[in-house]
Amino acid sequence: MIYEDYYIFTPGPVKMSQEILEIGAKQTPYFRNGAFSEVTFACEKSLLKMVNAPKDSKVIFLTASGTAGMESVVMNLLSKDDNALVVHGGGFGGRFVDICAIHKVPHTDFKVQHSNLSDIETLAPKEAYTSLIVNAHETSVGHLYDLDAMGEFAKKNNLFYIVDAISMLVTDPIDMHKQGIDVVIASSQKGLALPPGLTMVILAPSALERVKDVENMYFNFKDYLRNGERGQTPYTPAVTIMLQLEARLAQIEREGGVEKSIQKAKEIAEYFRESIKDLPLEAYTPFMPNAMTTLTPTDGKSAMDIVDALEEQSKVMVCPNGGAERETIFRVSHMGDMSKAYVDVLIDALYRYYGQVR
Amino acid sequence: MIYEDYYIFTPGPVKMSQEILEIGAKQTPYFRNGAFSEVTFACEKSLLKMVNAPKDSKVIFLTASGTAGMESVVMNLLSKDDNALVVHGGGFGGRFVDICAIHKVPHTDFKVQHSNLSDIETLAPKEAYTSLIVNAHETSVGHLYDLDAMGEFAKKNNLFYIVDAISMLVTDPIDMHKQGIDVVIASSQKGLALPPGLTMVILAPSALERVKDVENMYFNFKDYLRNGERGQTPYTPAVTIMLQLEARLAQIEREGGVEKSIQKAKEIAEYFRESIKDLPLEAYTPFMPNAMTTLTPTDGKSAMDIVDALEEQSKVMVCPNGGAERETIFRVSHMGDMSKAYVDVLIDALYRYYGQVR
User: Fold this and answer.
1) Any residues with CB less than 8 A from the CB of A253 and at least 6 apart, and which?
2) Are A354 and A276 in contact (CB under 8 A)?
3) Coil, helix or strand for B130?
4) Inter-chain contact B13–A21, Cβ cutoff 8 Å?
5) Which residues lie closer than 8 Å to A134 by C-beta, 6 or more apart?
6) Which residues of chain A are within 8 Å of residue B196 when distances are taken between CB atoms?
7) pLDDT at B4
8) pLDDT at A1 over 70
9) Which pLDDT tens digit goes with each residue over A50-67?
């Protein structure tokens, strides 16, 4: 097995807990029966509670990765009669722009830099929109947007508010009811700390009303909603990951609820940031989520060189960027089964790289 | 965990080997690097060998269940200028018909019963087709089609030949080169005996030529092929299942190659069929694959009653049918990590149900 004894600080896959890993070693059970429907219902109920979804919200479970969640939402909920304001602060925002273009949904490519959109009122183009789309945590650069301010803006302008929460659920706060969010997209391999392959779309009643007929089978929300009534999916679900999700959601609840998980992620992130402040690394953005820290070397070193050195010298996996940012930034995830002792391995590795004593 | 100590004879998920299960309990490694590319290349190479794919064939790895494989093939390889002959002998054939309709691919709903299409030359409608589509093993009823005869027919009529091999790969023979198959669809949770969530599309050069632009992101084969050149996928792959696939393909090779696996499945299927021949159960079709046996009670008993009784009395899971067939047939899979001793549990359970001594 590759990288079996490595320390994991990549933003997906993230470190999983022993309890979850053990379920991965069980036989996958047959699922077209009441016992598995109960698993689905338990997952749905916990997820809805976790994001404080409005009454009668529903969850769609897709056997697919996060991009399928983003695309299926645009396909099923937006049309040529919409005009979407798409926040584009990095690669994932750009992906939403591309998806709208592919599916012929009129949209504005709203390029955002150096703002968490707490000032969206001022920054947004003065155009009549019907929808607002954002990756709450733009994972390509580690930038968190202000879901409260965007929610206010969406409410005031009567916008259908779609939030990709893939890289911030469990580590950073989100509240569908309070923030007026209509759709939340989540995925298994980030804060939920499960293997990749399961994506969830949470639909408020306002979103359920919007579900339209699509010229597609695998991403037809109507089929998922109909099957969901009896705790099933139209096509084979990611059964093992669903069982792991059920256990993970129970684990979060047992450990004090999602607020506690968020608090813990915050402490871990602050501990890491504080511990490395004497090294020649600076935060790439002032708007960092608890989920991740993005760092820029200030001494002219190559970010990619640091990533490689941590892997080779210390068996520590952090995440490089591609393209132009390859040399200038790297990313450190705080998602998953983290502890200060585990993060110390990374901190020590960074000090070792710089030949400094911690 | 549900059904943890049950005996598994359902046609997906199927019983997995201990070696594969243990990989499910490992941390998921980061995958955007050379080490994971090697995993992808190893899987591609072994799969191509397994189906005797023509030189320069390619594999697309989709994080999705089998239906996504079926749909994406139609989306990327067929168009309104095609005319597809779609074999429809059960629920999965019907699904291909629906997919062609959704994507506006002209087609004939070729309803087939009581034939394995060794006589396709006689049975096929006399119309000009461009493509032939079949689920090699129509899993809804356990019926295996004659891929040789269909291949001959496809060759003679210059048809683009698409074979869904999801429920027969590893247990029943398929040979792209010999049978002139252009596309093979496979999935993780059947004969490959892995958890559900990974689907593979194998494209011969004749299929690669056909790949067109599609108005879809997640199912855009061109993106997969481009990323595949460096052993990557455009979106997060089902990393854990890919690692399990690599190990499983090596396991099959180590144990004597796919011919040996097919032989073993044949022996298991024959052993089961022979062992229950004194019970009031008859084969539903004369064209059974090694992968599965479909049985009809001949004493007026309800098939669903048998399924339930096996589960309750003996912790044995076989597969019920839905709809009109709920009372008349049930299915027994021979896919996965089977042995005669394991099958004996099912045979004994059936004898117990009938109050007979084996």
Assistant:
1) A46
2) no
3) coil
4) no
5) A86, A87, A93, A117, A145, A147, A150, A162, A163, A164
6) 28, 63, 236-240
7) 80
8) no
9) 999 999 999 999 999 999
